[in-house]
Amino acid sequence: MKMRYHINVFYSKEDKCYIADIPDLKYCSAHGDTPEEALREALVAQEAWLESARAGHRRAPEPKYRPAVYALA
Description:
three-stranded antiparallel beta sheet
């Protein structure tokens, strides 16, 4: 079963862009000019984070936060 992690998306006035952060995956975040772009980039970062964990024989953390929206795919 594929784990689904909560992703926070917010606008940063300081950075002048949208930030997408995955709190369950330490230091996993991305940014974009739109919320959708930030989310797409966060999903790419999430896959890279999880692949790195697998390569290092580390377990992915269980999600602590419940995603607000579930994808059907």
